[in-house]
Design goal:
Number of strands: 4
Number of domains: 1
Structural class: alpha+beta
Distance between the termini: 57 Å
Length: 92
Amino acid sequence: MVCTSVKQGFDCHFMTKKGCGFNGGTCHRIVEQCEGCQRIGEFASGKYCLIYPDPSAKWRLGKCQMATHLKETTRKENGRINPLKASKRKLH
């Protein structure tokens, strides 16, 4: 259903005929770590995540899985490769 509380006009899974069914009855605003993400929507009542109703819960245990502004680190960027494994790779 379309949200009528904080994300007005946005299709929300928590919205029911009785109102918002999320814990507390409303979505929570974004936290500082969310700044720069492409999944942020700016509404009249503030900035909210378009994916999660409580963004702070996603950052509590580490990084948010849906964050678009974070770059994945690869093994090559790390710079350290086990020389024994590297020598075995060259043989094949």
